Automatic annotation (TrEMBL):
<dbReference type="GO" id="GO:0042286">
    <property type="term" value="F:glutamate-1-semialdehyde 2,1-aminomutase activity"/>
</dbReference>
<dbReference type="InterPro" id="IPR015421">
    <property type="entry name" value="PyrdxlP-dep_Trfase_major"/>
</dbReference>
<comment type="subunit">
    <text>Homodimer.</text>
</comment>
<dbReference type="Pfam" id="PF00202">
    <property type="entry name" value="Aminotran_3"/>
</dbReference>
<keyword id="KW-0663">Pyridoxal phosphate</keyword>
<dbReference type="InterPro" id="IPR049704">
    <property type="entry name" value="Aminotrans_3_PPA_site"/>
</dbReference>
<dbReference type="InterPro" id="IPR015424">
    <property type="entry name" value="PyrdxlP-dep_Trfase"/>
</dbReference>
<dbReference type="InterPro" id="IPR005814">
    <property type="entry name" value="Aminotrans_3"/>
</dbReference>
<keyword id="KW-0627">Porphyrin biosynthesis</keyword>
<dbReference type="InterPro" id="IPR015422">
    <property type="entry name" value="PyrdxlP-dep_Trfase_small"/>
</dbReference>
<comment type="similarity">
    <text>Belongs to the class-III pyridoxal-phosphate-dependent aminotransferase family. HemL subfamily.</text>
</comment>
<dbReference type="InterPro" id="IPR004639">
    <property type="entry name" value="4pyrrol_synth_GluAld_NH2Trfase"/>
</dbReference>
<keyword id="KW-0413">Isomerase</keyword>
<comment type="pathway">
    <text>Porphyrin-containing compound metabolism; protoporphyrin-IX biosynthesis; 5-aminolevulinate from L-glutamyl-tRNA(Glu): step 2/2.</text>
</comment>
<protein>
    <recommendedName>
        <fullName>Glutamate-1-semialdehyde 2,1-aminomutase</fullName>
        <ecNumber>5.4.3.8</ecNumber>
    </recommendedName>
</protein>
<keyword id="KW-0963">Cytoplasm</keyword>
<feature type="modified residue" description="N6-(pyridoxal phosphate)lysine">
    <location>
        <position position="265"/>
    </location>
</feature>
Length: 428
């Protein structure tokens, strides 16, 4: 038995499903998860010493490539000064200043330790600041695992949601209205009916948790306008797309200003840092200034902040995002060429350093279209690619991530592996 298999069996004895986060278990593609030993640049190595080109990048954080020497050095230095104090530090000021500088809609920011904490806190803040309970989210968007966000659409178009997880009381989701992504008309009717009761709209301005789906500009503009008209707070959940699609995130790319933003993934550079922030007048509702409670023992942890701050400095290098986008586009162009070459329903799309691959004719623009893609072919493609040493997300509903270390030869190797894999699985 391989080390991966042995580890997976052992892990399942003491850890539910053998993993500490469900998607890692390979349930939607089958087979044995790879247990990772180390990572460097664009590569990771599993327990059996097989090398892979990594397109997960820890689900986004590894934008500089794994184990960037400057990030490692900053962490090593921080560690020598003590691991955690439970008291404020200068580095947290620097981190906050950097975030506020790079994302102008954020006048004040609070650091937390996970994206889930960031969105959950932003939601409570929005409700506290507006003194309203109802919220709007969109089908297929993931905002972490807070109770009122684990919800799917109710039976009717404008009925409130039902829990998608057991353990979430229906009472906790009855204030959440779930609408279709990229559907402006639904937004209009929801606000027409409930406008004065809606605390906030929370959205991934580039959706990366139902594969990659880009929001249309009209969709984001409509929600911005409706929120302003009705005194509701617009929350951009940029935990994934922040500092991933552009410096300054999707809001910089689209030129739309949310009231609150949630950040995570990239801003921790691989360690647990996330944040939420926005208008100072809204942030003033947070404890200790206001009545909305939020706290964290390890919030702003000095070691984690050292990794985050160094990462934020390095991504400001001239042309960083131009190059990242170019490399991602080369990958996607390659995938699209092969789809045409082999005459199969296979296509890809990219934005900044994120991409999606789809087993369908055209790039999807809605959750419904994503669900119609060929899941069986994806599974086979995933495993064929893995055999070829290419590590893609083990689910057809996740985006892919490129790093600054995905140089031309890395992209070429990937495209060639994709051609071989697609030939194998379609017998062409
Ligand atoms: C990953 C993610 C989260 C949750 O972040 P965690 O750090 O996993 O808790 C929230 N929102 C979006 C858009 C994400 O991609």
């Amino acid at each position: 038995m391989s080390f991966n298999e042995t580890f997976f069996q052992r892990a399942q004895i003491t850890t539910p499903g053998g993993v500490n986060s469900p998607v890692r278990a390979f349930r939607s593609v089958g087979g044995t998860p790879r247990f990772i030993k180390k990572a460097e640049g664009a590569y990771i190595w599993d327990a059996d010493d097989k090398q892979y080109i990594d397109y997960i990048g820890s689900w986004g954080p590894a934008i500089l490539g794994h184990a960037h020497p400057e990030v490692i050095a900053a962490v090593q230095h921080a560690v020598t000064q003590g691991l955690s104090f439970g008291a404020p530090t200068e580095a947290e000021i620097l981190m906050a200043e950097e975030i506020c500088k790079l994302v102008p809609s954020i006048e004040q920011v609070r650091l937390v330790s996970s994206g889930t904490e960031a969105t959950m806190s932003a939601l409570r803040l929005a409700r506290g600041a507006t003194k309203r309970d109802k919220i709007i989210k969109f089908e297929g968007c993931y905002h972490g695992h807070a109770d009122s966000l684990l919800v799917k659409a109710g039976s009717g178009l404008l009925t409130f949601g039902n829990p998608t997880s057991s353990g979430v009381p229906a009472d906790f989701t009855k204030h959440t209205l779930v609408l279709d992504y990229n559907d402006c008309a639904q937004l209009e009717s929801a606000f027409q009916q409930f406008g004065s009761e809606i605390a906030c709209v929370i959205v991934e301005p580039v959706a990366g948790n139902m594969n990659l789906i880009k929001a249309t500009e009209a969709f984001l503009q409509t929600m911005r306008r409706l929120c302003s008209e009705h005194g509701s707070i617009l929350i951009f959940d940029e935990v994934m797309c922040g500092f991933r699609v552009a410096l300054g995130g999707a809001q910089a790319l689209f030129g739309i200003t949310p009231d609150l933003t949630a950040l995570g993934k990239v801003i921790g550079g691989g360690l647990p840092v996330a944040a939420f922030g926005g208008k100072a007048e809204i942030m003033a509702h947070l404890a200790p200034l206001g009545g909305v409670y939020q706290a964290g023992t390890l919030s702003g942890n000095p070691v984690a902040v050292a990794a985050g701050l160094t990462t934020l400095k390095l991504i400001q290098a001239p042309d960083f995002y131009t190059q990242l986008s170019q490399q991602t586009q080369k990958l996607v162009d390659g995938f699209n060429r092969i789809g045409t070459e082999l005459n199969i329903d296979f296509c890809a799309d990219a934005i900044g350093g994120m991409f999606g691959i789809y087993f369908c004719k055209e790039v999807p623009t809605s959750f419904e279209q994503v669900m119609q893609a060929n899941g069986e072919l994806f599974k086979r493609f995933f495993h064929a690619m893995l055999d070829h040493g290419i590590y893609l997300a083990p689910s057809a509903y996740e985006a892919g991530f490129v790093s600054a270390c995905h140089f031309d030869h890395v992209i070429e190797t990937t495209i060639n592996a994709a051609r071989e894999s697609l030939r194998q699985i379609t017998c062409k």
